Amino acid sequence: MKAIVFYRHGDPDVLEAAELPTPHPGPGEVLVRVRACAMNHLDLWVRRGIPSLRLEMPHILGSDVAGVVAEVGPEISGIEVGDRVVVNATLSCGQCEFCLRGEDNRCRQGGILGEHVRGGYAEYVVVPARNLLKLPEGFPFEEAAAASLVFLTAWHMLITRGALRPGEDVLIVGAGGGVNTAALQIAKLAGARVIVVASNPEKAERARALGADHVIDRSQEPDWSRAAWQWTGRRGVDVVVDNVGRATWMKSIRVLRPGGRMLVVGATSGPNPEDFDIRYVFSRQISILGSTMGTQHDFRTVMGLIFAGRLRPVIDRVLPLTPAGAREGHRLLESGAVFGKIVFQVDAIE
Ligand code: ZN
């Protein structure tokens, strides 16, 4: 099969086409002919190299896969060749303490498709059958791939971990990221009031169009923390979603009401905030809730809402999965000049 791979870590130019043996599914596994694969920030981290992550080279990125079942391994029922499917990228053992109680995103033997094992920047990928969900008739592969990881992540963070309630105020730091565009829609669907901090007027407008109740454009209002605090009548917000980390952490902590929750699924600007004042955490009784990926139950719930049209993935653009297309996608995501998801269409890889 053809794939877009890298043999060494580095800038987007390390991405190249390669011919690799088509894998075959083992027991409990399925081979999927990839039709669409969406990008995540994770792809950038893995391409650049994560110190604790040892990869078998060449590595194939890609966590968000939708496609058609091409081969079914032994011990599988309910899935047939030709089924149109979307893949949950959260890999788990299915047998440990966490898996058995439905917390499979905490599995110690688990991982993420495209990070720990070869992913979907390829014509074919092998995945566990239990990670598949069938697409409704006619549902586009691109939308399914664009939805899967970010909506799963945002759902687990806001609903499962964050226990978001109707009427609560949620502040989302950043408008354009895939998780943030998903979090905004999920928070609205849950009956919350949503404040978005956007980096420029264009992203502010897009956030309004997606249903944000209040948008703060930080290019006009650098002290967005104070602006949000005042907008809530100096009460503070119930929940902050901050995946930026280092650059915004303390501003996010300051805007929380007493007893508020800080939800964290990433740290795109870096993991070590220098100005973190722990006194805020105890004096305001703040809960800091970390979250990563989501459970099989979350995946089925949120994808059901996607299939029903209650939630809609935001696609910035669709690119062909070629070396040039992959490099362009990586450069665009690195530049921050995207709103929503970049999706690769996987036809013939040249
Ligand atoms: Zn497990």
Describe the structure in your own words.
- This protein is globular.
- Helix 3 (141-161) packs across helix 4 (178-189) and helix 3 crosses helix 9.
- The chain is 28% helix and 25% strand.
- Strands 3, 4, 5, 8, 9, 16 and 17 form a seven-stranded mixed sheet that branches. The protein has a six-stranded parallel sheet with strand order 12-11-10-13-14-15, with helices on both faces.
- It has two domains: 2-149 and 294-345, Quinone Oxidoreductase, Chain A, domain 1 (Alpha-Beta Complex); 163-290, Medium-chain alcohol dehydrogenases, catalytic domain (Quinone Oxidoreductase, Chain A, domain 1).
- It is an alpha/beta fold.
- The model has no long low-confidence stretch (mean pLDDT 96).
- The chain contains ten helices and 17 strands.
- Zinc ion is lined by residues 92-93, 95-96, 98-99, 107, 109-110.
Shape: globular
The end-to-end span amounts to: 11 Å
Strand content is 25-35%
CATH architecture of the largest domain: Alpha-Beta Complex
Classify the fold: give the CATH topology of the largest domain.
Quinone Oxidoreductase, Chain A, domain 1
How does the helix and strand content classify structurally? Answer: alpha/beta
Tell me the total number of β-strands.
17
CATH superfamily of the largest domain: Medium-chain alcohol dehydrogenases, catalytic domain
Q: Which CATH class of the largest domain is shown?
A: Alpha Beta
So what's the oligomer here? Answer: single chain
Number of distinct helices = 10
